[in-house]
Each structure stands twice: as structure tokens, then as C-alpha cells.
């Protein structure tokens, strides 16, 4: 039997000893792969996702990977601690320190390979279920269809094989075989009673309250900027939670005689304090890796929804057409016919409305202003299910889409509200109110007047054509 075969058989024949380390490593791979499935999902990785969101996802992926490294490293160190007696027996049989290091290296590479493959396959097996759960947990309005995540598989496999290789090399170099008597005694030596700091326990509670409180309170674009600070604060708080705060509460329960002396609570709390101290780092790593992964996924979707919502509010129509200023009426009609023909050929059911955008000279403003009659405005409003406007004969309604400032540093609505609209007979009508609407697309700041008054306006200085289509949706959204 060669040394490689010995290491391979050592893993296969001691499944119970290796299973905890294998499962913890496989779990880490599966969490990272789940994150990669979301990060590379077509619904998230399209062009509408802002670069800041992609940067945040990359940072979250890096944090997960770094914590995965420490989690696997700690799992392996705990695994090696449980094998002290085995190392002692091998040394008694003549094994050298170099051979033990080589054995640990080969074993870890073997376990790492199968853990990476197993974690990836487990992620693929539950990928659709994970996507379905995410749709409901994150309250995603659009479906997340299953896709074969080729890029996620490649990134996960390459990253973790590299991770296990470096951990194997690192551990094989720093591995120290203690005295033979210490190795044979193994884990029988006393560890001492776990202790906790009151100050660090209070700090843990404060950090968790601040971190999760901030995460709940921030909205919109602030979610992206708060993600990294919240992750750092919650990470430190979570570590202190498992290493200090949990031990502190257990000691408090032990000091309460009415609880500690009841039934088998003496055995429970005595053993629990040691177990919490021993497994604190493992609990911490598992909690942080999972939290960072799903927090990053939620942040990405929240930020994308924020951007998508803004784009939809500014562009409520499925398709709009605005010809060049010097296009003739025949060109415009031919273009609209071509668009309708394409939609019909592709079986896209869409409703269309078009109108002439007429601009008038406003002496008080020294500019050209769009004035639309109510009937034209209402046709476009009906197309996107907006409320129609019904101005009186002696009033005009100012419509703006957003609070964008003009070059003068004043909002368009403020200028329009301060000016009266002159009529042909020398009369004027005064604007009565300002409403926010995206009925005429990206146009920001114009008047809507009564149809009868519209015919009494002055000479048109400029006329544009606008057409818009709204796709008619039927049936339920398919998953």
C-alpha cells in the first residue's frame, strides 16, 4: 500500500470521524453556491442593475469567501484536535512529522474535493426550491425562473478548490506534533470553566441592536451605503454573542439556584457552557456566512427594485415614438405603420395613442411652453390607467413629472404657476394647481387646458408628434 492509498483509505474507513468536517465544509460550499446562483441570475445581472449594486454584491461575495476560509480553517483545526490520539499512535509506530503533514495535506485535499462537488450538487438539487423561497421571502414581484448556473458552478468549484489547497498547505506547515504523552492523552485534559466579560456582553447586545436596527430603518439608495457598515457591526456583535453574551447568560442561570437545582438543569447548564465556548466560532461562522449571503441577495434585489421602480415611473409606456423635428407627416405615418406591423407580426397586443405636441410662446417666461388640451391628455392617461384631468374654462393645470430644477435654479412648476396663459381676445387664464404625472412621458412642466379654451390660444410656434404604446397583459404571471 502506497502512502497516498493509506491517506485515501484513512478517509474512507473513518467516516464517522471525518463526517463532521466534511459536512461543515460542504455546507459552506452550498451557501456560497446559493449566493452565486442569485448573483449570476439573469433577473439580477441585466443591464438595469447599477454599478454600485454590483460592487456591493462583489464585496458581499468577498466577505462570504473570507469567512468561508476561516470557517473551513477552524473546522479543520477542531478536526485535527480530535485526532491527537491518532497522531500519537502513528508516531509510536514510526511515522515522522513530515509524513503526518503529508497525510493531513492529502486527506484535506480529498475531503475538500468531495465537499466542493457535494455542496455544488446539493445547491443544484435545491436551486429551484431556493429560488421559489426567495420570491416569497424577498417579496419579489417578478419570477426567478430556474436556469443552469454554469458560471456559478465554475466560480464555486474554482474558488473552493483553491481555498482547500491553500488551507491544506497552510495547515501542513503550521502543524505541530506535541509531546507523545500529550498526544496520547488527547482531549482528556481539563479546559477550565468558561468565563465571560460583562462589558463585552453589553457591547455585543448594543452592536446587534444598532446593526439590525439600522438595517430595518434604512430605505431606498441608503440600503446600499449601509450594507457594508451593517455587516461589519453585526459580524462583531455576532462573534461576541456566541463567545461572551451566551456564556454570560448561562452563568447567570447557573447562579440562579431555583433554576440550576431544578431536575437535570445542573447537567444541562454545566455542559452547555463548555459546548457554547467550544463551538462559538463554528456557530459564528455559520451565522455570518448565511447572513451575509442572504443579506446581499436581499440588498441587490431591493436596490434593483428601487431603480426599476424609478425607471417605470418615468417611462410608464411600453414603447414611445418621437420623430425628428424636420420629419414630414408622411414619414411619421409610415413609421407608425411599420411599428404596428412589427407588433402584429410578433403577436404583441398593444394599444396606441398619438397626439400633436403644440408649443406656444409665453412672453412672461421668455420661452416656449407646451400646452395640451384635456382630451389629448386624458387619452394618454387612460392608456396607463392614470386619473383624467377636467380643467374648467378659466383655469389651467400645471403638470410636472419630477422636482427637477431648471438652469435658473427654480422648478418648472414654480415658473409655470407664476405665469398666466394669454388668449387671442386679450384675456388670460391663471394656473390653479400642480400635479405630478408621467402621462406625456419624460416631458417635465407643461399646461393642460380645457378643449374650448385650447382653440383660443395664440399662434403655434412649434409642433411635435408623439405616439405611445401600452402592452395589454392578459392571464396570470407564469412561474
From TrEMBL:
| Name of the protein | ABC transporter permease protein YxdM
| Highest taxon of the lineage | Bacteria
Task: Tell me the keywords, alphabetical order.
Answer: Cell membrane, Membrane, Transmembrane, Transmembrane helix
Using the record, list the residue span of the signal peptide; answer none if the entry has no such feature.
none
User: What residue intervals traverse the membrane?
Assistant: 20-41, 53-74, 109-134, 146-175, 196-215, 221-242, 283-303
- Species the sequence originates in: Oceanobacillus picturae
The main location is membrane
| Pfam families for this protein | FtsX
The organism that produces this protein has a lineage beginning with: Bacteria, Bacillati, Bacillota, Bacilli, Bacillales
Look up keyword Transmembrane helix and say if it applies.
yes
Amino acid at each position: 500500500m502506497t502512502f497516498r492509498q493509506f491517506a485515501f483509505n484513512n478517509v474512507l474507513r473513518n467516516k464517522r470521524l471525518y463526517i463532521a468536517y466534511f459536512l461543515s465544509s460542504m455546507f459552506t460550499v452550498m451557501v456560497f453556491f446559493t449566493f452565486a446562483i442569485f448573483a449570476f441570475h439573469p433577473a439580477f445581472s441585466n443591464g438595469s442593475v447599477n454599478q454600485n449594486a454590483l460592487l456591493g454584491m462583489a464585496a458581499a461575495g468577498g466577505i462570504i469567501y473570507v469567512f468561508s476560509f476561516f470557517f473551513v480553517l477552524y473546522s479543520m483545526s477542531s478536526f485535527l484536535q480530535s485526532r491527537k490520539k491518532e497522531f500519537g499512535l502513528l508516531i509510536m509506530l514510526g511515522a515522522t512529522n513530515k509524513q503526518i503533514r503529508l497525510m493531513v495535506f492529502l486527506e484535506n485535499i480529498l475531503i475538500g474535493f468531495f465537499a466542493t462537488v457535494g455542496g455544488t450538487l446539493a445547491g443544484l438539487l435545491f436551486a429551484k426550491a431556493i429560488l421559489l423561497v426567495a420570491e416569497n421571502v424577498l417579496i419579489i414581484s417578478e419570477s426567478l425562473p430556474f436556469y443552469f448556473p454554469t458560471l456559478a458552478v465554475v466560480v464555486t468549484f474554482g474558488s473552493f478548490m483553491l481555498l482547500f489547497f491553500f488551507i491544506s498547505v497552510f495547515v501542513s506547515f503550521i502543524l505541530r506534533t506535541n509531546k507523545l504523552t500529550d498526544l496520547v492523552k488527547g482531549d482528556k485534559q481539563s479546559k477550565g470553566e468558561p468565563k465571560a466579560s460583562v462589558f463585552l456582553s453589553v457591547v455585543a447586545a448594543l452592536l446587534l441592536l444598532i446593526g439590525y436596527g439600522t438595517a430595518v430603518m434604512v430605505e431606498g439608495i441608503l440600503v446600499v451605503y449601509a450594507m457594508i457598515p451593517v455587516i461589519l457591526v453585526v459580524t462583531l456583535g455576532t462573534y461576541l454573542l456566541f463567545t461572551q453574551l451566551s456564556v454570560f447568560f448561562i452563568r447567570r442561570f447557573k447562579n440562579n439556584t431555583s433554576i440550576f437545582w431544578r431536575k437535570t438543569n445542573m447537567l444541562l447548564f454545566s455542559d452547555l457552557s463548555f459546548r457554547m465556548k467550544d463551538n462559538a466560532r463554528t456557530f459564528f461562522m455559520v451565522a455570518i456566512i448565511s447572513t451575509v449571503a442572504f443579506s446581499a441577495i436581499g440588498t441587490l434585489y431591493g436596490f434593483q427594485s428601487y431603480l426599476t421602480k424609478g425607471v417605470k415611473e418615468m417611462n410608464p409606456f411600453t414603447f414611445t415614438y418621437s420623430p425628428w423635428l424636420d420629419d414630414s407627416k408622411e414619414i411619421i405615418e409610415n413609421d407608425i405603420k411599420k411599428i404596428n406591423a412589427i407588433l402584429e407580426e410578433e403577436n404583441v397586443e398593444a394599444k396606441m395613442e398619438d397626439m400633436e405636441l403644440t408649443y406656444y410662446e409665453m412672453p412672461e417666461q421668455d420661452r416656449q411652453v407646451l400646452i395640451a388640451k384635456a382630451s389629448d391628455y386624458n387619452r394618454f392617461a387612460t392608456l396607463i390607467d392614470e386619473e383624467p384631468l377636467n380643467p374648467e374654462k378659466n383655469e389651467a393645470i400645471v403638470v410636472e413629472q419630477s422636482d427637477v430644477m431648471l438652469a435658473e435654479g427654480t422648478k418648472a412648476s414654480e415658473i409655470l404657476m407664476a405665469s398666466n396663459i394669454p388668449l387671442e381676445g386679450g384675456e388670460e387664464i391663471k394656473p390653479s394647481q400642480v400635479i405630478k404625472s408621467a402621462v406625456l412621458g419624460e416631458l417635465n412642466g407643461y399646461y393642460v387646458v380645457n378643449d374650448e379654451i385650447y382653440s383660443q390660444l395664440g399662434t403655434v410656434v412649434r409642433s411635435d408628434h408623439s405616439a405611445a404604446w401600452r402592452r395589454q397583459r392578459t392571464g396570470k404571471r407564469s412561474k
